[in-house]
Amino acid sequence: MEFREYEEMLWNLMSAENTVRNHAEMMFESMKADSDRTLLYLLQVIRSTLSDDVRGLAAVLLRRVLIRDEVSLWTNAAASTQHSVKTDLLHVLTYETNRSIRRKLCDTVGELASSILEEGEWEELLPCMFQWITSTNVAHRESALRVFEMISLYMATCMTAYFDTTIQQLFQTSLRDGEGHVALHALRALGMLLLSLDELDERDRFQPLLPAILHALHTMHVDGNEEDLVEAMEVLIELLEPHASFFKPMLKELVPLMVVLVSTGASDGSFGRRQLAMEVLVSIAENAASACRRFPQNGFVEQVFPLTFHLMLDVNEDTTGDEVDDAEDDISNVDVGAEALQRMAQAIGFKKALPVSFGLVSQYAGTSTN
């Protein structure tokens, strides 16, 4: 098959006509019998100046045949082809400007690296990533961190000697990086590394990064970077259940920030952000209850519990009946507030929770009768 025919097959794989698409799928499956040609053709498409749609599909297919298929083409490929795959992936990533394709290629690099790094089969990868992390090109820094996220298990098992030096400095710098989405990618990579560590002593070696994490969250909020902020809070929620104690040194700074995120933005469509910030607070209460009870002057309950009442009373009077019907499957702020109050009261204990809760009930009951 000539390259032009291969390109046509890729276009047909995206066809809306079932007959055309099914025929192209059969052609691609039969071609996979030749591992070397399939891998090299896909790389040629990715390197080419063809449409981003075709190049993006080629990137997806390359990841699938290398990693995801039951029989990986990687193991059947010649050593020269394997070398071309590794070299070309890094070369394309160096110059790729399409963010979607770059993300797909990073995932391919990361998954392939996860399966071969420990055997010493990709010696060029880590030096390249550490070079990119200091690059002036923000795309390089983001790509390196995405790859680090994908190889977190390798880092957790084979790079512990560098935790206090190279790795920690990498995250210190990246979490404070205000360009692009670098800080978010750094938080994601750090989160995956923490989840990959088995020993608490190893995990706590990264506690010096807590101020940088707080800085990243605060900067996302101040800059109005809602999408990154929402994703960052999702990372925190995932980490808090198994690793709440890791965050204890910064709870007195993290809690007020989450309080601000729940309290503000009611009229700008940021309901998802407010709900996630409340979930972070609930996760803190459920997984670090003793630390919450030790806040001076019952400070955690005094700061957080009023927010649950605000959410429960947050009814948009401008919402029409049709809009209510359309949104009936959504989780409302009323639901979030009620559930959060119940979960936090149970976690922290009624001795701390009830006096504040009764005071809030009396306050709002008095307001409604005036």
From TrEMBL:
One of its GO terms (biological process) is protein import into nucleus. The keyword Transport applies. GO terms for cellular component: cytoplasm; nucleus. Residues 98-255 form the IPO4/5-like TPR repeats domain. The keyword Nucleotidyltransferase does not apply. It holds the Pfam family TPR_IPO5. Its main location: cytoplasm. It is found in: Cytoplasm; Nucleus. PANTHER family: IMPORTIN BETA. This is IPO4/5-like TPR repeats domain-containing protein. The lineage of its organism: Eukaryota, Sar, Stramenopiles, Oomycota, Saprolegniomycetes.
